[in-house]
Design a protein that fits this description.
66% of the residues lie in helices and 0% in strands. The chain has a single domain, classed as Orthogonal Bundle (Ribonucleotide Reductase, subunit A). Helix 2 packs across helix 5 and helix 7 packs antiparallel against helix 10. The protein is globular, with a radius of gyration of 20 Å. The chain is an all-alpha fold.
C-alpha cells in the first residue's frame, strides 16, 4: 500500500475545499473539442470566409490571432507541470490535473480549426498556406512572455517557496490566462460575433463555429483564473507573500501583453481597435491586482467566472 503523507485526513478529499469545488465544476462542465463543436458549424465558417466579405489582410489578422492562441494553449499545457509537482494538497492536485487536461483540449480545438477551416479557405482564396507554428506570427514580446512563464514554473522545482509560487500563478493564471487570453477572446468576439462589445463598422462576418469553440474555452479559463486568484490571495494572507511582489510581477508582464497587442498588422477598419484592446487588458490587470492584494476581498463566484455569452449554449449553471 502506498505511504499516505497526510495522516490527519479521515477521507481522501475535502468536499468543502475551494479547489474541490472548482474540480467538481470542471467535471460538470466537461466538453469534447470534436463532438461538441459540430462539423456543420465549421463548414459554415469555411463558407463565410470563402466569400469576398473578408480580404487578405483581414484573413491574415485572423490567422495570426489563432496561431497565437494555439501556441499559447500548447505552451501552458507543457509549462503547468512543475506547479502540479510541488503541490502536496490533494484537492489542489485534482484541480490542477483537470486544468492540464482542459489546456490539452483547447490545443486540440485550435489545431482542428486551423486544419478544417483556415487551410482550406487559404487554398480556395489563393492565399499563401501557412503553418500555425510559423515564426512570423510570434513577436519578441510574445516569445519573452512565454519564456518568462516557463522560467517561473521551472524555478519551483529548485526554489519552491510561497513567493515563487505566487509569481508562478501571476505568470500563468493571471497574465497568460486572464489578461492575454481574455483580451484576445474579447477581440475575436467583437470581430466575429454579434454578441461582441465595441464592434465598429458595418460589414462583419459571423463565425459561429469559432465563437462556439472559444465560448467553451473561456468557460474553462474563467475557472482557471478564479483558482489562480484564490491561490495568490491565500499566499498573501496565509504565507505573508509581499503584495508588492505580486503587483510588480503583473505590471512587468502587462508590458509584454501590450507589446503583443500592438504587434499585429494594422487594418484600415478593424472591428476593435488596438487602443480598445490595450484598455481592456490594462483595466483587467488593475482589477486583478485590486482583488488579490486585499485579503478581505471576495472573489466572484465560479458561476460568474465561467458565464460567457455568445455560444449556442449559455455556459452558466
Amino acid at each position: 500500500m502506498p505511504q499516505i503523507e497526510d495522516t490527519t485526513r479521515n477521507y481522501r478529499l475535502d468536499p468543502d475545499s475551494f479547489a474541490g469545488g472548482y474540480f467538481r465544476n470542471a467535471v460538470y462542465r466537461h466538453w469534447d473539442p470534436y463532438e461538441d463543436i459540430p462539423q456543420s458549424m465549421l463548414e459554415a465558417d469555411r463558407s463565410r470566409l470563402r466569400g469576398d466579405d473578408i480580404d487578405q489582410a483581414e484573413f491574415e489578422s485572423l490567422r495570426r490571432t489563432l496561431a497565437l492562441f494555439g501556441a499559447g494553449e500548447e505552451a501552458v499545457t507543457e509549462d503547468l507541470t512543475p506547479l502540479l509537482q510541488v503541490t502536496s494538497d490533494v484537492d489542489r492536485e485534482l484541480f490542477l490535473t483537470s486544468q492540464l487536461y482542459e489546456e490539452a483540449k483547447h490545443t486540440q480545438f485550435f489545431d482542428r480549426y486551423w486544419r478544417e477551416v483556415i487551410d482550406p479557405v487559404a487554398r480556395d482564396r489563393g492565399f499563401e498556406v501557412t503553418n500555425p507554428t510559423d515564426q512570423r506570427y510570434f513577436s519578441e514580446d510574445y516569445v519573452a512572455l512565454f519564456e518568462k512563464t516557463a522560467t517561473a514554473m521551472e524555478r519551483l522545482l529548485s526554489e519552491d517557496s510561497p513567493t515563487n509560487r505566487a509569481r508562478a500563478y501571476c505568470h500563468y493564471h493571471l497574465i497568460v490566462e486572464s489578461v492575454l487570453a481574455q483580451t484576445g477572446y474579447y477581440g475575436l468576439q467583437s470581430t466575429f460575433s454579434p454578441t461582441g462589445a465595441d464592434r465598429t463598422g458595418e460589414n462583419h462576418i459571423d463565425l459561429d463555429g469559432l465563437i462556439e469553440g472559444i465560448t467553451r474555452v473561456r468557460s474553462d479559463e474563467g475557472r482557471h483564473v478564479g483558482f489562480g486568484m484564490h491561490e495568490v490571495q491565500r499566499l498573501i494572507g496565509e504565507e505573508e507573500v509581499d503584495p508588492g511582489v505580486v503587483q510588480s510581477t503583473l505590471t512587468e508582464l502587462l508590458g509584454h501583453v501590450v507589446g503583443i497587442l500592438q504587434a499585429g498588422e494594422e487594418l484600415e477598419e478593424p472591428a476593435v481597435s488596438n487602443e480598445a484592446l490595450t484598455k481592456y487588458a490594462t483595466e483587467k490587470t488593475s482589477r486583478r491586482i485590486e482583488i488579490i492584494t486585499d485579503a478581505a476581498a471576495e472573489l466572484p463566484p465560479v458561476d460568474e467566472l465561467v458565464r460567457i455569452e455568445g455560444g449556442r449554449e449559455d455556459t452558466s449553471a
